[in-house]
Specification:
The protein is an alpha+beta fold. The protein is built from two helices and eleven strands. The chain has an eight-stranded antiparallel barrel with strand order 1-2-3-5-6-7-8-11.
């Protein structure tokens, strides 16, 4: 077998391997970030926008807006002298075909013009797709003091509050009509 034939065989095998890997990413059970979602649990609701950061939809930027909260969240905010939440922003990444991890950051603020930031709230959690249009998320809430710069959480300080147990929300994709 000549040198040219061996090179053609190697390149053909490489092309087949790359093609096979590409097809593996299109599996039915490989979920991708993207789109608009609504979710919550009784007494708490929110919406979010997932923006993929890579073509395969394996990483994301995310923005969450809380629409409604109950006495438990109102009590937590008031414990820090706040009465409102900012949008939460963060990033996530897929860790398996159907599960992602993420961390979000929001601020507890006291109303005013301008509002006064009282604390930073971190929400680390996981997102598990249950279908293309539904998911379940589990997360915790950790409240931190604001650092000297006035806008970032002081992660060197112990948290002021950590949720006693994980919170679970159901999630649905906003349909395209």
């Amino acid at each position: 077998m000549g040198l040219l034939n061996r090179r053609m065989i190697r390149w053909s095998l490489l092309a087949l391997a790359v093609g096979g890997l590409s097809l593996a990413w299109t599996e039915k059970n490989h979920y991708r970030f993207g789109g608009a979602w609504v979710g919550g649990h009784p007494g708490f609701s929110w919406n979010c926008l997932q923006i993929p950061l890579d073509p395969a939809g394996r990483t994301e930027a995310i923005r969450v807006d809380v629409l409604k909260w109950g006495a438990d969240v109102a009590g937590l905010l008031s414990a820090f002298g706040a009465d409102q939440l900012t949008s939460a922003i963060g990033e996530g990444r897929m860790i398996s075909a159907d599960t992602a991890t993420w961390t979000l950051l929001a601020y507890a603020q006291a109303s005013g013009n301008p509002p006064t930031t009282k604390a930073a709230i971190l929400y680390p959690g996981s997102w598990t797709f249950t279908s293309q249009n539904t998911a379940e998320i589990t997360y915790t809430v950790a409240v931190y003091p604001i650092s000297a710069d006035g806008y970032s959480p002081d992660l060197s300080a112990p948290p002021l509050y950590v949720s006693p147990e994980p919170i679970t929300d159901t999630v649905k994709r906003v349909p395209t009509l």
